[in-house]
Amino acid sequence: MNSIRIHPLDNVAVALCDIPAGEIAGSDELKVKTCEKIGQGHKVALVDIPEGSAVIKYGNRIGIATEDIKAGSFVHTHNVRTALSENTKFEYRPQIQDLPQVESRTFMGFRRAKGKVGIRNEIWIIPTVGCVNSIAERLVKENQDLVKGTVDGLYAYTHPFGCSQMGDDHDTTKRVLASLVRHPNAGGVLVLSLGCENLTPDQFKEELQEWNGRRVKFMTCQDVDNEIEEGRKLLEELAEYAGQAEREEIDASELIVGMKCGGSDGLSGITANPTVGRFSDKLISMGGSTVLTEVPEMFGAESILFNRCKDSVTFYKAVDMVDKFKKYFVDHGQVIYENPSPGNKEGGITTLEDKSCGCVQKGGSAVVTDVLGYAEPVRMKGLSLLSGPGNDMVSATDLTAAGAHMILFTTGRGTPFGAPAPTVKISTNTPLYEKKGKWIDFNTGTVAEGKETLDEAGDRLLDLVLEVASGKKTRQEEFGYREISIFKDGVTL
Prior knowledge:
Elements: E1 3-4, E2 12-15, E3 24-26, E4 31-33, E5 43-45, E6 54-57, E7 60-65, E8 74-75, E9 80-81, E10 106-111, E11 117-118, E12 122-127, H1 133-142, E13 154-156, H2 167-182, E14 186-193, H3 201-208, E15 216-220, H4 227-242, E16 248-251, E17 256-261, H5 272-285, E18 289-292, H6 302-306, H7 312-331, H8 342-346, H9 352-359, E19 368-372, E20 382-386, H10 392-401, E21 406-411, E22 423-427, H11 430-435, E23 442-443, H12 445-448, H13 454-469, H14 475-478
Parallel strand pairs: 12-13, 12-14, 14-15, 17-18, 17-21, 18-20, 19-20, 21-22, 22-23
Antiparallel strand pairs: 1-2, 2-5, 3-4, 5-8, 6-7, 7-9, 10-11, 10-16
Helix pairs in contact: 2-3, 2-10, 5-13
């Protein structure tokens, strides 16, 4: 099979490999001879598509033909435009289905206070202001001897904020950093302040509300004679406390897994994203939780996702989330459809609707149980939608702050970056997996090659997730690729 027609309503098929001109493509129900070469991940017209008509993929409109497109022709940016606008009305039409029953599973994790669990037992240094980034990095470099026993690592999460910010930006920085301090993958946390910044230590403690004084330590660099020596003492105390934790068997229902994509291609919505969707359904069937973000990559695919909301209240919260993000674009003088990226287009994605319809496949078919604000912690079991942008580092930080124990990151182009939470990279195609084995943890190119079904890939991914939750390191962890990025919208003083 050289191509796939994803939905019976589709008037295009997607090439699963490079298809030369003159070959047959399509499905058993609708075949066509290609008029020109169709690259892997790109689309071929299965029927004549008149100018002004809808181009259909995933059973959904992904754009409008800008010229007459003959059957067998290459369909892409040269002959298709977006159909999105800033103003779209939505109506709740519930499409809720039962998930198949899945046998319960367990993993080896860390029990934390108040019923929380972690899948890592690391020591984190969280700067409240960018001025102390270098101190945080030096403390990490000079104290690696504390990583022993059940302590998995010592890391600093630097950023440029915490001062010269006002209003929402100030509150966002405070909320994200406090959420990281509370994250159960950290067995101990050193909060590092300067002393004169806008985000004062007292403000930060007020945001935290409560904390275990053995697990969380504070140091204000301007208040101590030698911040390196004092930092060492505090890290020793944190290492002693964290080192008392031991892995124990925990039910998979306690896992929270974030889902996102980046460097997508035309196979993302056919192999990797629906594989993650199958995994999501399986974890939720076991009582677990998944989180889907990247709101701009829901534009044009809202009906696929939002009609699965558990009730009308949740539906209109989802609509409000999308409307606010569209307003964010408009308020900054930008069009909502300035996406996909050049790499996305090269890989076969034509419009934002095309990208979005593939993106939301990560959400599987489960009911949407909740809608969360930016960096707001997960409150309910099941599938939650999390407000946040599509930017990889910002959205991965968002997912971590929301409480995701790990992140599943699908990609057709490849990327090395990682979040504070273990980041599992999933390739959409085998050539990427073979070329970038030091970046990629899991290959779904096997689905395009007909070597396994989406359900089989989903089962295999579930096995890997439980292995990672039990301590298996991801490629990103092996090479130390960890960083955060905080959403910013306002002025800098």
